[in-house]
Amino acid sequence: MTLARPAFPVVLAAPSGAGKTTLARMLVERNEDVVFSISATTRPPRKGERDGRDYHFIDDDTFARMIDRDELAEWAVVHGRRYGTPRREIASALERGRTVVLDIDVQGARQVRRVFAEALLIFVLPPSADELARRLTSRASEDPAERRRRMTNAMREIEAAPEFDFVVLNDDLERAYARVESIVRSEWSRVKRVRDLERFADELVRDLEAIIRQEES
Ligand code: ADP
Ligand code: 5GP
């Protein structure tokens, strides 16, 4: 007799550079029931990024076709490029009973909330503006103009934090990770998410009745 772990989408959103990709990857690496939703994007790969692992890197026409065919659960223009979550990324994870982590922006998070009422939305905050700027520089993946664009967009994104279910301060990485993991683990035990609770409880009661009957006879 087992209680199946509930499967649902977990959205990690944050201003660029706050550390959501790092935290999302840690969640996937350290929990075998958690998988990463690989987004489609029209932005070019950064050094070290791999097609099909970090993103599905596609051109504008292919992205437009995916929209036409309704293949995206959500999509948005972020920092001037198009990003979207393929429906099959979420569907195939949920079919396999996996928790699926979406590393997406605030516009995408709002759409996911509408499409998947059961989604868990976590907002990651940097400890300070200075630290956010430092992390964006240290990643060294964008030129100065792109970095500036991301900092400007960050101001708007931060204002959306109150719309989320949980907020996590990413000061020390391991501490922040522990916070994220404890939120997800708590949700695995939330009564309304545990689908076969009734069956499990019924079986327990039936087995207990059998033991009582046996002891009485
Ligand atoms: P995002 O996905 O939110 O844009 P990343 O996960 O790419 O952010 O993180 C941005 C940079 O900051 C990366 O170089 C990452 O290694 C670094 N970073 C993330 N979290 C922390 C942390 N808690 N302390 C220091 N550096 C961090
Ligand atoms: P980056 O270019 O740094 O990988 O991502 C830029 C922003 O786009 C980040 O805020 C990231 O979370 C967001 N993003 C990545 N994939 C998706 C997606 O599928 N949908 C949406 N809406 N945003 C995404």
Briefly summarize what is shown.
With 217 residues, the chain is of the alpha/beta class. Helices cover 47% and strands 18% of the residues. It has one domain (9-216): 3-Layer(aba) Sandwich (Rossmann fold).
CATH class annotation? Alpha Beta
Give the strand order, joined by hyphens, for the main sheet.
2-7-1-8-9
Number of helices: 8
Radius of gyration: 20 Å
**What is the count of structural domains?**
1
User: How do the SSEs run, as a string of H and E?
Assistant: EHEEEHEEHEHEHHEHH
What structural category do the secondary elements indicate? alpha/beta
Mean pLDDT comes to 95
Question: What are the key terms here?
Answer:
Rossmann fold, five-stranded parallel sheet, binds guanosine-5'-monophosphate, 9 strands, 217 residues, binds adenosine-5'-diphosphate, four-stranded mixed sheet
Structural account:
The longest helix has 20 residues, at 197-216. The chain has one domain (9-216): Rossmann fold (3-Layer(aba) Sandwich), CATH 3.40.50.300. The model has no long low-confidence stretch (mean pLDDT 95). The radius of gyration is 20 Å and the shape is elongated. The protein has helices at residues 20-30, 60-68, 87-95, 106-115, 129-139, 144-158, 173-188, 197-216, and strands at residues 9-13, 34-36, 40-41, 56-57, 72-78, 81-86, 99-103, 120-125, 166-169. A five-stranded parallel sheet has the order 2-7-1-8-9, with helices on both faces. A four-stranded mixed sheet has the order 4-3-6-5. With 217 residues, the chain is an alpha/beta fold. It binds adenosine-5'-diphosphate and guanosine-5'-monophosphate.
